[in-house]
Amino acid sequence: MTHQDESPDSGDPFTREASRLRKIFFEMNLYEGFELLVMLVLTMLIMVITAIATWSLTREVWDLVWSAQIDPSKAQTFQEVFGNIFTVIIALEFKSSLRISLSHSKDVVRVRTIVLIALLAVSRKFIILDLHEVVPAEMFAFSAAVLALGVVYWLIREQDIRVASKTEQPVSAGSAPPEKQE
Fold first, then answer.
1. 30 near 24, Cβ under 8 Å?
2. How much is the CA Rg of the chain, to the nearest whole Å?
3. Residue 55: exposed, middle, or buried by beta-carbon count in 10 A (0-12, 13-18, 19+)?
4. Using an 8 Å Cβ cutoff, are 81 and 128 in contact?
5. pLDDT per position in the chain (182 positions), as tens?
6. pTM, 2 dp
7. Distance from CA of residue 87 to its chain's centroid?
């Protein structure tokens, strides 16, 4: 038995996570192992994209500060910067959804996270939208998309809360059995 096998809490977090994933990988069937490898590759790619987007955003803001182009009256500059910030946030949310899938060994990335990412993407579009060039039908379509995604997100969240509360009920003493869903 190696030193790492004796105390799983020793070592750096990367080593612990790699050991945990290695153990899970050898317990999986072929397709589950393939999914794990794909998610690890996607995680690495998203990390690279996020790092590049963050570096680009940092350079852009630095250049704006040093060239004294940060002016509240120039909405276009702020739209571009905040659009780029949302790009980084969306990439981080993608990475977070993959991390959740890896840590919980789930086959499907949670739908709630995907809807959240879609909400972030549409919100980003609202931020970078030039209000002088947008037609009313396009604005209505974006608004309807945000409303629909918001409702779906709320419904999924409510269902997650109901499922979580039903799994907790049998644990407490004297609670009634959960009702059947129809």
1. no
2. 22
3. exposed
4. no
5. 444 444 455 678 878 878 877 887 778 788 877 877 888 898 899 999 999 999 999 999 898 888 877 776 777 788 888 888 988 998 888 888 777 766 664 544 467 778 888 888 888 888 888 778 888 898 899 889 999 999 998 888 888 788 778 876 554 444 444 444 43
6. 0.61
7. 12
